[in-house]
Amino acid sequence: MRIVFLGPPGAGKGTQAETVSRVEKIPHISSGNLLREAIETGTDTGAKARSYIEKGLLVPDQVVVGIIKDRILKTDCKNGFVLDGFPRTLLQAKILDEMLRTLGKCVDLVFYFVVSEDAVVERLSGRVMCSICGANYHVKFVPPRKKDICDKCNGKLHQRADDKPETVLERLKVYREQTAGLVEYYRNNKILKEISSDLKIEVISKNIADIINNELKKQKKTKVG
User: Fold this and answer.
1) Residue 201 domain-assigned?
2) What angle do CA 176, 181, 184 make, to 5 degrees?
3) Which of 10, 65, 115, 154 is the most buried (most CB within 10 A)?
4) Is residue 218 part of a domain?
5) How do residues 69-113 score in pLDDT, each as one tens digit?
6) Residue 220 within a domain
7) Is residue 222 assigned to a domain?
């Protein structure tokens, strides 16, 4: 099962992608995490991506596509994957389709997470992460036991540059401008499923699981037929 999670930053895609990854036993591939790893390890790709990410801008297609292609060609993706944060433009979606077509595969489902701008700003601007182990917290929703200190390793917590309120607003603006055609593209392909991010996490998880199970049943019937 090859699944795409589509939606603005802060919509809760990562949390749900981890759940689907665990239940379906397929890798969760986050383009944001892959890029941040490239930045932290000082690769050429990381150097190119850093200035875009810190300004809240989308990283150019040629940079992201190379990283994603290398990842989905790994053997653990042979039975599927969950793509989180990619594609983010119509061009990236078409490149992904062509990439999979050469492997005799296709995107099976696209979950489009719908969330208000105010909710995104509140969720992202309150996020903090550990500078040592990378654990994530939220000052309101998932606060650490001690202020600014990681529960797991006692590392110092900090806010990512791209989670500052002014940068979040810029990220949303860029997201709306550059992903406008994506929803329509996948809707026309009849694989788009809208998910409300305003519901409780467990309700969202169940809605997604039900849709995936229905799709798997359809695929099984098609193979049998």
Assistant:
1) yes
2) 120
3) 10
4) no
5) 888 989 999 999 999 989 988 999 999 999 999 989 999 999 999
6) no
7) no
